[in-house]
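Quick log. Single chain, no ligands specified.
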Amino acid sequence: METLWRGLVEALYLLLSLDPTVWRIALRTLAISGSATVLSALLGIPLGIWLVLGRVPARRFWLTLTHTGMALPPVVVGLMVALLLWRTGPLGFLEWIYTPTAMVIAQTILATPMVAGVMVSGLQALGQEARWQLLGLGASGFQAAWVLVQQARGALLAAVMAGFGTAVSEVGASLMVGGNLKGYTRVLTTAVVLETRRGNFARALALGFILLGLAFWVNAMLTVLQQREADPDS
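-> predicted structure:
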């Protein structure tokens, strides 16, 4: 209990004292995970829409594959990306290994199935009946899909939140492809691992509290938008 209290006190001190190292790590975390969230949304939202509303051969297979992707082991993704980006790998000439770019790629791969899966659930909750009704009223396939997506805006924001949560909390792949380099690829999750290995449990907890605060702040903003969509008169 004493360690928890010390961690909370140190977290407040690091934030209020404007510790430059901690603030740089926090901003780097937001930049990397934010970029991965945007990319995963650009990939996952259309994928989810296509899986539900498109003409998809073997739809159940692709849905199963998407749902399986929601449980991708981060270390496996990290290994695959590292092998691709390693100097002797097929993309080694890009020299992206141990860079923020590699971390964005790994986090995007992990977050995209999560975004797609949540989007699928949101659209399926509307039911196929709504789509057939729109088609029966004379709407084209594209128009019917657009109306349903508009109705599922709350699910869309939930998908973005799920993607950000997956990206910002990831540690295994980030360590493997980013290397946890001080001042370059060190983010809050990898900094927590480093401080724990050093036995600095209070500082590790402090960084963990800052990570939770960052996640809460981003999700609070997205939740406000989501609830505004759910209740426009509020």
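Residues 115 and 229 are 18 Å apart (CA to CA).
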